[in-house]
């Protein structure tokens, strides 16, 4: 794993954070408690800040970035980013799920408990209302989520809490240094 400062800004890691060996967290980044950043993912806060709320998971090969003077990037609590997401200088509200291979661009806001379908492109400045399903490229409103679908979104972040805990137990068994104890460059 790479955990490194940039221009004097150091990543801040909450309690029980899991960083996979090939994850990178750089610069002005704050990870809340129980966040997991998985294999090949990059969280690069080198030109604006990135804030990731508690119990959020960033799945394999995702890229989180900002642009100078265009940002920050905010993922609130209990957000799930599927594999291969690109998330850039936007806000994703509590409990939202962004599906695999989706892209969310500058200034977009994904509402609480919303679902962005796999492979979608959320154009810059798009506002996705809470509890809705958006899909396509560019992503468009498809429908409101049902109450069952909204409660089902919790399954994803809760699964990743379990996965994270299993990996942390395995790391402890193998003597791997937890990320909070890794000296910053």
Written account of the structure:
With 185 residues, this protein is α/β, with parallel strands linked by helices. The chain has one helix spanning 147-174; strands spanning 2-4, 12-13, 18-19, 24-31, 36-37, 42-52, 57-58, 63-65, 73-75, 80-81, 86-88, 91-92, 97-98, 103-104, 109-110, 115-116, 121-122, 127-128, 132-136, 139-144. It has a single domain (2-173), classed as Hexapeptide repeat proteins (UDP N-Acetylglucosamine Acyltransferase, domain 1, 3 Solenoid), CATH 2.160.10. It contains 1 helix and 20 strands. Strands 1, 2, 4, 6, 8, 9, 11, 12, 14, 15, 17 and 18 form a 12-stranded parallel beta sheet that branches. Strands 3-5-7-10-13-16-19-20 form an 8-stranded mixed beta sheet. Strand 19 and strand 20 form a beta hairpin. The longest helix is centred in the last third of the chain and has 28 residues, at 147-174. The model has no long low-confidence stretch (mean pLDDT 95).
Overall outline:
globular
Average pLDDT for all residues:
95
Unreliable runs: none
Task: Tell me the fraction of residues in β-strands, as a range.
Answer: 35-45%
């Amino acid at each position: 794993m790479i955990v490194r400062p940039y221009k004097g800004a150091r990543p801040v890691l909450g309690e029980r954070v899991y960083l996979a060996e090939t994850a990178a967290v750089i610069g002005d980044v704050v990870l809340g408690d129980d966040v997991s950043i998985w294999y090949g993912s990059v969280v690069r806060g080198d030109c604006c800040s990135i804030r990731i709320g508690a119990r959020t998971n960033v799945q394999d090969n995702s890229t989180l970035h900002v642009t100078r003077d265009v940002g920050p990037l905010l993922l609130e609590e209990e957000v799930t980013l599927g594999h291969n997401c690109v998330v850039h200088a936007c806000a994703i509200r509590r409990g939202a799920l962004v599906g695999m291979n989706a892209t969310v661009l500058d200034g977009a806001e994904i509402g609480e408990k919303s679902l962005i379908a796999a492979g979608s492109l959320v154009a810059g400045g798009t506002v996705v209302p809470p509890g809705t399903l958006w899909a396509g490229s560019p992503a468009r409103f498809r429908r409101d989520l049902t109450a069952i679908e909204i409660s089902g979104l919790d399954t994803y972040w809760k699964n990743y809490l379990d996965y994270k805990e299993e990996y942390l137990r395995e790391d402890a068994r193998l003597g791997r240094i937890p990320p909070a104890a890794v000296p910053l460059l």
